[in-house]
Write a structure and sequence with these properties.
InterPro entries: HMG_CoA_synt_C_dom, HMG_CoA_synth_N, HMG_CoA_synthase_prok, Thiolase-like. With 391 residues, the chain is α+β, with helices and mostly antiparallel strands. It is 34% helix and 26% strand. It folds into two domains: 230 residues, Peroxisomal Thiolase, Chain A, domain 1; 154 residues, Peroxisomal Thiolase, Chain A, domain 1. Strand 12 and strand 13 form a beta hairpin. Helix 1 runs antiparallel to helix 2.
Amino acid sequence: MKIGIDKIGFYTPHLYVDMNELAVARDIDPGKFTVGIGQEKMAIAPITQDSVTLAANAALEILDEEDKDKIDFVIFGTETGVDSSKSAGVYVHELLGLNPQARTIEVKQACYGATAGIQMAKGHIALNPESKVLVLGSDIARYGLNTSGEATQGAGAVALLMSADPTIMALEDKSAYFTSDIMDFWRPVYSDKAFVDGKLSNEQYIAFFSKVWGQFKEKSGLGLKDFDAICYHLPYTKMGLKALRTIWDEGSDNDKERLEENYTFSAKYNRIVGNIYTGSLYLSVLSLLENKEDLKAGSRIGLFSYGSGAVGEFFTGILQPNYRDHLYVDNHTELFQSRTAVSVSEYEETYEDTLPMDGSTMELDIDNDPATICLAGITADQRQYVNKRNK
């Protein structure tokens, strides 16, 4: 039985800052952002968007009534959840009007959370072939203004509908994974900003890729010649390319040309969104599928997932016949074209506009947020979410 990705949805907020302008404001050579790390634009979440609303908006565009009835498991991968107890997925379940006879959980392991959700979904569907599982990867990356990590912030969510006999990508059985206790990136419970040892994190990303790639080759007998593309978790778009180039010598010139060209397609969306943590790898997959129009059914795609702290995994998927018919290219083109550029000062003001930490009642103006699902405020320590279609 084939199990894999049946639909893919994506959402990012309507605001962004140009990385050239940010570099000038920080007295940094713009090339360090646009070329050095490979970022052009950075998505900015207004106060009316959080990881719940981003995920709900991403899923809203792809689910029909049959999907809503058959989804019996919601797995929300995030490292910027909104509650230490209640799953962010429960909010999304209600906002989308899903079948109440469902399991709903939140999964956390840095940027690896959505990948863990996909692997759980595979097991669930293997036991329940008629079921569908909604896997969400949603985050807002915050390192702080004028910090070394500021240029690798971002906001967005990817929604993956998993099923038997998928229309987009069937996941293969062989997978390689690795865990090690490393303090390359972390966010203590008392902080709304992440801490990162950038040099160590880059080193461990490469080291984990080397480990799981080697393990995968031993398990599967596959090599570079067997892949049409490899997609990566992209905290910034140059990171995955660095990893890919560590295995260059294993392939022919044709392999190098093919994989580097397709890598460029896979990084296009990430370049103009930024780091979305758990959704980053799957935004890369989406970017490849929507921008590389001649990628054929039957193509094998490699996927490298890395979550600092750290867990890494390498697995693969096979593109299904007529997979492009099941993508939402026009929706995503419109989403990107409708975004609004803000100045650096406006970005800083939005960044500092945060919710109260003492449970104070707060009402938010959602009229200026074009998203269908928004955070409307806080009452009695409870976040108030609104689906404008239900008003």
